[in-house]
Design goal:
Length: about 600
């Protein structure tokens, strides 16, 4: 019976590792992260519940230093949400944290770590097959621009996921070759070739750098042995390779690299304003664009203006942690990683997981894994699978003390009840998200249907903090198109989409962006609140200095309020602006400004 239960536990763990990325976009839709995190929470909580009801094995939980650091980090995250955000956060952010905590706990209970290694290799192979099918045209990607996205939304997360899986595959293959297991060696070689090809197709710079870092770690013992008597040459070669690699990757897409430098520069202002405790969970997406607007208002001639755009992530997880949690959260994160890499237990799986974790850490310097649940789950698996020396042990079934036996029973019962509640809540919300996703898509397809827009407001109170909900409100399909921005028709009808948006109290819950601030400025402009309209349009213009629409809206406002000098100055700025894409709308706006300036000049003459 115990063997059957253990086999079932391992089967579910492998299933979660393999299916979480595979199902990411296929069943999640708009709310992919939320749906997959609920699925993982339900599955892992069910395993935790089963364990505490009837512990399997010797019933002893060994706590190591990494476990303590992880526990403190999660506790601080909850404390941060409570004290700074007063629990005014996306409920699914808490669900995501709970799912990762449950997954980490389950991984700490598994003794057969080789099963986890093979599960990661299998997951990478499955993603490689998806990429191969996208390359041949049998299935389409999840992005209108990029072909090779795997089960993710774009090639970036795909590259990071493949890089980690590829490093684990190489480390496993190295182990198998040393032990001369020929049949497995052939299968792993095929998996390695498939993953290398898929990583190449992903065209992810961060993924390639992550793979190289993990590859060096896998073969570091051999490299150290070879270079032991050649230290000077080793330092010169390593320095040359690193500098050349960074220069090549930077020059490959210089605008993208420069854009990330802008985000990191502005993020420093966010960190400086709350260096110790941070600005709270989800604060980057809520505040970053306002900080970017302040930056360009202060430095209007900055060379970063040409690469500025809307940003919802800092493209660096360590910067992200500093923004939301301050140096305290950053310290706990570093402690987690230090204890994981410092684990000295003589278990060959440890070296494999450490190599994969290093690749994941390198990827985190240049991407946003915390926004992609399958990636975050993979990081948790790697961290939880590393075995460290126990700090202390806890026996769930003590035999010699009645007091400890009762305490253990109470503790087991409390954790079992909590796990059962999480299973019920997560399962309920899986269906809730499916219904919401379906109705949101229907509303986007029919943006003129007022009834559908009003129906969406039913979800507003619970989902107003959710990023996916904020950015997919059906009104955006109509109100934020370029054609509508140029539409001169007035929204005078009280039941117009814009009025419905404002009356539904959803206007204030949009995340700050150039588009949302133009929308809010337009609303205030049409109700005659010109002072607020000017503030919103001006902030939008500073957010992305090369965007024409907010400057055009400012010109409209100045002409409406007879501020002729300001209108002339804005029109001249628009005419002289260099835009990223010189499309038909940019040509029309500049043409209108030239006519206006010519008319003003003739009038003055």
């Amino acid at each position: 019976m115990k063997k059957t239960v253990k086999a079932l536990i391992y089967f579910i763990v492998v299933l979660i590792i393999v299916l979480s990325p595979l199902l990411y976009h296929s069943i999640g839709g708009i709310f992919a992260n939320e749906t997959i995190s609920c699925l993982a929470l339900a599955g892992c909580s069910a395993l935790v519940f089963a364990f505490f009801i009837k512990p399997v094995g010797d019933s002893i939980i060994a706590i190591n230093a990494t476990d303590l650091a992880v526990a403190i980090f999660f506790f601080y995250g909850l404390l941060n949400i409570w004290i700074i955000k007063h629990f005014e956060v996306n409920i699914f952010t808490i669900y995501k944290g709970a799912a990762l905590a449950a997954c980490y706990f389950v991984l700490r209970l598994t003794s057969r770590k080789w099963i986890i290694v093979y599960a990661i290799v299998l997951s990478g192979l499955v993603q490689s097959c998806v990429v191969a099918l996208q390359e041949t045209g049998y299935i389409s990607g999840n992005n209108t621009i990029f072909i090779h996205t795997g089960s993710f939304g774009n090639p970036g997360p795909l590259g990071g996921y493949l890089a980690v899986c590829l490093v684990v595959t190489i480390a496993l293959l190295y182990h198998v070759v040393k032990n001369k297991t020929k049949k497995v060696w052939l299968l792993l070689s095929a998996a390695l070739a498939a993953q290398c090809y898929a990583l190449y197709l992903s065209d992810s710079r961060a993924g390639i750098m992550s793979f190289i870092a993990g590859f060096v770690v896998v073969f570091s013992p051999k490299i150290q042995t070879y270079l032991k008597s050649r230290k000077t040459i080793a330092i010169l070669v390593a320095s040359t390779v690193i500098i050349t690699l960074f220069a090549a990757l930077y020059s490959y897409r210089p605008d993208s690299a420069k854009g990330r430098l802008l985000i990191w520069r502005v993020s420093l202002d966010m960190i400086a304003d709350a260096p110790i405790f941070g600005q709270g969970t989800d604060s980057f997406v809520e505040k970053y664009m306002l900080y970017q607007a302040n930056y360009f208002a202060k430095y209007p001639e900055s060379s970063f203006a040409s690469v500025a755009d809307n940003a919802i992530t800092p493209f660096n997880e360590f910067v992200n942690v500093l923004v939301w949690g301050g140096f305290i959260a950053f310290l706990f994160l570093c402690a987690m990683l230090y204890f994981a890499f410092a684990a000295r237990r003589k278990d060959e799986t440890n070296s494999i997981f450490k190599a994969g974790l290093l690749a994941a850490v390198v990827f985190s310097f240049f991407s946003y894994p915390s926004e992609i649940f399958p990636l975050l789950l993979l990081y948790t698996v790697l961290l939880g699978a590393i075995e460290g020396n126990p700090v202390f042990c806890f026996n769930l079934r003590p035999r010699y003390s009645l007091t400890f036996a009762l305490s253990s029973l109470c503790l087991r019962s409390a954790f079992a009840l909590l796990s059962l509640c999480l299973v019920v809540l997560a399962t309920k919300d899986i269906f809730y998200l499916g219904r919401l996703s379906s109705e949101t898509l229907e509303s986007i397809r029919n943006p003129d249907d007022k009834q559908k827009l009003e129906n969406m407001n039913v979800y507003h109170n619970r989902m107003k903090q959710n990023f996916a909900f904020k950015t997919s409100r059906p009104v955006w399909a109509k109100l934020l198109s370029d054609e509508n921005m140029l539409n001169e028709a007035e929204y005078s009808d009280k039941d117009s989409p814009l009025s419905l948006l404002a009356n539904s109290a959803s206007l204030e819950c949009f995340i700050p962006s150039c588009e949302s601030y133009c929308l809010m400025g337009k609303y205030h402009f049409e109700i005659g609140n010109y002072h607020e309209a000017k503030r919103f349009f001006g902030t939008a213009a500073n957010m992305i200095p090369t965007r024409l629409i907010p400057h055009y809206r400012l010109w409209e406002l100045y002409t409406k309020t007879d501020e002729i000098p300001a209108a002339i100055e804005t029109a001249q700025k628009i005419v002289n602006m260099s835009v990223k894409t010189n499309n038909v709308y940019a040509i029309r706006i500049k043409g209108r400004m030239k006519k206006y300036l010519k008319a003003i000049k003739n009038y003055e003459l």
